[in-house]
Amino acid sequence: MKNEFISKWTSQVKKGVLSFIVLNALSKKELYGYELIEVVKKSTAIEMAEGTLYPLMNRLKKEGLTSSKWVEQPSGIPRKYYTLTQEGKLTLQQMRQYWAALELSIKKITENEI
Amino acid sequence: MKNEFISKWTSQVKKGVLSFIVLNALSKKELYGYELIEVVKKSTAIEMAEGTLYPLMNRLKKEGLTSSKWVEQPSGIPRKYYTLTQEGKLTLQQMRQYWAALELSIKKITENEI
DNA sequence: ACAAAACACCTAGTATTACAAGGTATTAAA
DNA sequence: TTTAATACCTTGTAATACTAGGTGTTTTGT
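Structure tokens for the assembled complex are given below, as produced in the milestone run.
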């Protein structure tokens, strides 16, 4: 199988979607980076590479949508936990509105035919 | 208003989504470029710039998902009509499957909280 | 005891694509 | 007669997912 076009396409679809997914995940509880990848993989069947996540988390923080704190572990490497800021929550609400409209649009244009 | 982050985000979300929308539109009937912009604007409330559409149509054709033909007009500039190829139809079906899964994933991760 | 896998963070470089801002040319409306 | 609408196009820029690397610790398997 493995349609070359499709795999490029799914990668493009993820642009933007991943930040939406991450913010949604963080709206439920604070998470650290590595954990986020696991959560996304398990609850959405979407693969997110580490090389995607960490730069993304830096952007979200720089934009003021999240804040982070280091948490030492009794054993092992310290974890960097992320939380939604107030601005992050507001932005997430706007994103959800846009997404709902987009879903509807695509539902409409998808119906019938092929 | 005008959240800077949101407008950048919506632009990113469109990457990939626009090709999906265009292929869906073409699955109903053949259309020419300028018409596609109108159709998308009217039926989905999604803005697509000309500078986005024409390069996109070239990519889709190069990938073998569409074919095109020039149609002279009784008056005015000739129109370039696009049609889905067989491969285009197959690819579109795969895209629809992926999209359905994505919708579900996001629905799941969106539910509750903020 | 030792190797491999899993955990947990990170960066640099590449490919892709939406968009802004331009361009050409024709026809209809003001 | 000048503006808007129709219809095609291109160039350059910004943003982001991914590949492929890197560091170091802890747990699991043999």
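The first helix of chain B runs from residue 4 to 28. Chain B has a mean pLDDT of 92. Further analysis is deferred to the final report.
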